[in-house]
Specification:
The chain is an alpha+beta fold. The chain has two domains: 93 residues, Beta Barrel (OB fold (Dihydrolipoamide Acetyltransferase, E2P)), CATH 2.40.50.140; 290 residues, BirA Bifunctional Protein, domain 2, CATH 3.30.930.10. Strand 1 and strand 2 form a beta hairpin. Helix 6 crosses helix 8. The structure holds 4-amino-1,4-dioxobutan-2-aminium adenosine-5'-monophosphate and magnesium ion. The site of 4-amino-1,4-dioxobutan-2-aminium adenosine-5'-monophosphate (4AD) has 22 residues, from strand 11, strand 15, strand 16 and helix 13. The site of magnesium ion has 3 residues, from strand 15.
Length: 465
């Protein structure tokens, strides 16, 4: 006999062809019923909805039915029929059931519904089985796919930046070291410092904070490239918007100036949000209902409105004139905090804002200096509920000016001689930006803590799963 193919619950719930035999496998969400008939809600993760399996108690052994509890993994063969119950088009009339894995109701942590997000973080190994995390993980997948699609359709090449590096792209100093030296007894130089020449790579190495410097090398050959990979920051920021390990998308474009860069960032973000609205509506509707009643409206609003473009100096004037009490006082020269960014977006403009021309002191060494010699061609995209979602800039393509800047900041030339070489050989005006993938997912899902939009978050004192 021909082996029966497993059907996805997503496809069964859409089909009009009832009366057919089908085979499904998945995890039991609930079982209810009476002594004659049982109803199992079965979910296989292909879609937020579970399918109802109808079980005539008399046709199965008591032993088997006892094993079918919340969390158990089962296989069901049966007939797909129109469902008399409201809210579901079809259900399965069970003929054969196999239990792959039981789940003790006394100890299964997801036995009951309605756990807090905080509790679910403590069981990150099981939370993908909840509706909430199923929805988030499917949206996360859809966004990753849409990112590759957008760039591929627009002539960009995917460049893989290294994860282990010897350079600090952002100059922020928040790096995780990578070493095989014995931490208790490392080789020392005569001056007492650690001798990294004996380490694996023959030099001191770290986990990357950004793939930008390598993306620039790619852009100055392939014109349009992007990276999409994990990045690591050892900053001790315990906020709902920071992770120690997060994914970043970094497009880098030769011959783009700061305006081209802003145009791309705006078009890219709108495309991604439109993609979510067109492809993830089941999951968005669930999140809209459960967590954020304005979510879908907010997403539509972003796709339909132009972003405000504004200089840092004007932004500071607005913030100072606002009469708000800030936790971090603001004045020209200070870095903007989430409270300032969100005020501009949520209370002043009621739209996303792209801020440009920040003071050079608060931005990285590679940004192109403006004529005033005080500000750089930086651009941060600020979003409602999030604050900064993208950070980018036009790059300094002039070798002398770039060298002056790194000397000013005390960055050793020997660490980035290869980066400086691109300014020596066929330099070109170019620009790029970095989108924090989890900040995007926060925005698209309406969740409020970044720990809830990555499967296994890495934050200070937390790397369990
Ligand atoms: O503004 P950042 O630090 O910019 C860069 O790394 C540049 N090299 C990007 C570029 O021009 N190619 O980081 C970019 C984005 C931020 O806007 C934010 O969305 C996200 O990365 N981000 C974080 N996301 C989660 N946790 C953290 N600790 C993050 N730090 C930055
Ligand atoms: Mg930034």
């Amino acid at each position: 006999m021909e082996k029966m193919q497993q059907a996805k619950i997503r496809d069964l719930l859409k089909t009009k062809e009832t009366g057919k035999e089908c085979l499904v496998r998945g995890w039991v969400r609930t079982k209810r019923g009476n002594k004659n008939i049982n109803f199992i809600a079965l979910n296989d993760g292909s879609v937020i909805h579970s399918i109802q399996v109808v079980v005539e108690v008399a046709q199965f052994s008591e032993e088997l039915l006892k094993q079918i509890t919340t969390g158990a993994c089962i296989e069901v063969k049966g007939t797909l029929v129109d469902s008399p119950a409201s809210g579901q088009p079809v259900e399965i009339q069970a003929k054969e059931i196999i239990v792959f894995g039981t789940s003790d109701p006394e100890t299964y942590p997801l036995q009951k519904k309605g756990h807090s997000l905080e509790f679910l973080r403590e069981i990150a190994h099981l939370r993908p089985r909840t509706n909430t995390f199923g929805a988030i993980l499917r949206i996360r997948h859809a966004m990753a796919f849409a990112i590759h699609k957008y760039f591929n359709d627009n002539g960009f090449y995917y460049l893989h930046a290294p994860i282990i590096t010897g350079s600090d792209a952002e100059g922020a100093g928040a790096l995780f070291r990578v070493s095989i030296l014995d931490p208790k007894n490392p080789p020392l130089k005569p001056d007492g410092s650690v001798d990294f020449s004996e380490d694996f790579f023959g030099k001191e190495t770290k986990l990357t904070v950004s793939g930008q410097l390598q993306a620039e090398l790619g852009a100055l050959a392939l014109s349009l490239v992007y990276t999409f990979g994990p990045t690591f920051r050892a900053e001790n920021s315990n906020t709902p918007r920071h992770l120690a390990e997060f994914w970043m998308i970094e497009p880098e474009m030769a011959f783009y100036d700061i305006v081209d860069n802003m145009d791309l960032a705006e078009d890219f973000l709108k495309y991604l949000i439109r993609y979510a609205l067109e492809n993830c509506m089941d999951d968005l509707e669930f999140l809209n209902k459960m967590y954020d009643i304005e979510l879908i409206e907010r997403l539509k609003f972003i796709t339909e409105n132009d972003f405000i473009r504004l200089g840092y100096t004007e932004a500071v004037d607005i913030l100072k004139a606002s009469g708000q009490q800030w936790e971090f006082p603001v004045d020209w020269g200070t870095d903007l905090q989430a409270e300032h960014e969100r005020y501009l977006v949520e209370q002043h403009f009621h739209k996303p804002v792209i801020l440009t021309d920040y003071p050079k002191e608060i931005k990285a060494f590679y940004m192109k200096m403006n004529e005033d010699n005080k500000t750089v061609r930086a651009m941060d995209v600020l979003f409602p509920k999030i604050g900064e979602i993208i950070g980018g800039s036009q790059r300094e393509e002039n070798l002398e000016r770039l060298k002056n800047r790194i000397h000013e900041l005390g960055i050793p030339e020997k660490d980035i001689w290869w980066y400086l070489d691109t300014r020596k050989f066929g330099t070109a005006p170019h620009s790029g930006f970095g989108l924090g993938f989890e900040r995007l997912i926060l925005f698209v899902t309406g969740m409020s803590n970044i720990r809830d939009v990555i499967p296994f978050p890495r934050t200070p004192k937390n790397a369990e799963f």
